[in-house]
Write a structure and sequence with these properties.
This protein has about 300 residues and is α+β, with helices and mostly antiparallel strands. Helices cover about 30% and strands about 35% of the residues. The structure holds coenzyme A.
């Protein structure tokens, strides 16, 4: 990361030092997110550090009090996430300071993030524009009484590392930009199911350990039936255990399937963008792949 990030600022009674997030203790980052009630494990932080960049704010004796990260995909786009300030530092301008430092690193990239209620006004003040709601669905997974069959003419199978290029290509159509580095890392950490027609990948769902249990995401598909076909095996695999899925698509068959699978809306965040607005997955044209589930709030 650019060494110009390292600097200091007096905030109220606190002297806060900013440094590269890769240089700070993982356990302190873990404690920071626990302090604001987030479920991330230390391993979840490590995955994010492997695929992204970030800034940490520390006090004079090295205690981590804040963080902000970004996840670039090529030179034109990035998501922003893990924006946290410890409760004793909140409402003193540290969140804004961290965000301004992150924005300085972006060199004109289009930006997307998923804002908690606490952060919305901060992002609005930095010119991010609200787009749509993300529903954080979670609970004890259960197999719906109505069995979901694989659509006729399609083949469902476990994904392998050799499928990475097809996953990246389909995800790029759905998400809007190719995310090869991220997907390479996620495929290694995940179990994946893909739906194929004539040997071509039409839908996929990855599932990995995260927080209190497992998270399903990303999921890309061009219709509810296909999305259900690739998510259903993960629900079966995790039956009776904690499962989470973050989606902008809570209507229709897919929403009903999530509810019947025990994944109820626990909370919402708001997708916001700076620059080009992202396409609305709810109003896509027929046959267009869309993102049915996010990789995570931070990763989009
Ligand atoms: C969201 C979060 C990062 C904001 O951090 P913060 O350090 O409180 O941010 P700031 O101090 O820069 O701004 C927050 C508020 O304080 C106000 N503020 C900023 N400087 C101030 C000052 N000197 N005196 C009084 N208020 C001030 C801002 O106007 C803003 O108020 P508003 O939200 O009512 O508009 C922090 O609340 C947090 O970590 N929350 C939990 C985790 C979370 O939700 N993260 C966001 C993920 S998207």
């Amino acid at each position: 990361m650019d060494s110009s990030v390292s600097s200091s600022l007096a905030i109220d009674a606190f002297a806060v030092r900013l440094s590269d997030i890769g240089a700070v203790d993982l356990d302190q980052l873990h404690a920071l997110s626990i302090g604001v009630g987030w479920p991330h494990r230390a391993e979840d932080w490590q995955l994010l550090r492997n695929v992204g960049h970030g800034i940490a704010a520390s006090d004079e004796i090295g205690r981590v009090l804040g963080s902000a990260m970004w996840f670039p995909h090529g030179s034109g786009f990035a998501t922003i996430g893990m924006v946290i300030t410890s409760p004793r530092l909140q409402s003193l301008g540290a969140g804004e300071l961290l965000m301004r430092r992150v924005l300085e690193q972006q060199q004109g990239r289009e930006l997307r993030l998923n804002a908690t209620r606490a952060a919305r006004r901060l992002y609005l003040s930095l010119d991010f524009r609200p787009e749509r709601t993300v529903f954080q669905c979670q609970g004890e997974a259960r197999v719906p009484r109505q069995t979901h069959v694989v659509p006729p003419g399609a083949e469902l199978r476990r994904l392998e590392q050799a499928d990475l290029a097809a996953i990246v290509a389909l995800d790029a159509q759905a998400f809007g930009v190719p995310r090869r580095v991220l997907l390479d890392a996620l495929v290694q950490e995940s179990v994946g199911f893909g739906l194929f027609r004539g040997g071509r990948l039409n839908a996929f769902a990855l599932c990995r350990r995260f927080g209190r249990g497992h998270v399903v995401g990303p999921v890309a598909a061009s219709c509810d039936e296909d999305a259900i076909a690739v998510v259903a095996p993960h629900v079966s695999d995790r039956e009776g255990r904690f499962l989470r899925l973050d989606t902008q698509l809570r209507e229709g068959q897919f929403g009903t399937f999530l509810s019947q699978s025990g994944l109820r809306v626990f909370d919402t965040v708001l997708t916001m963008s700076l620059g080009r607005q992202s396409a609305d997955p709810g109003s896509r044209s027929s046959g267009q792949p869309v993102t049915y589930a996010l990789a995570s709030h931070a990763l989009g």
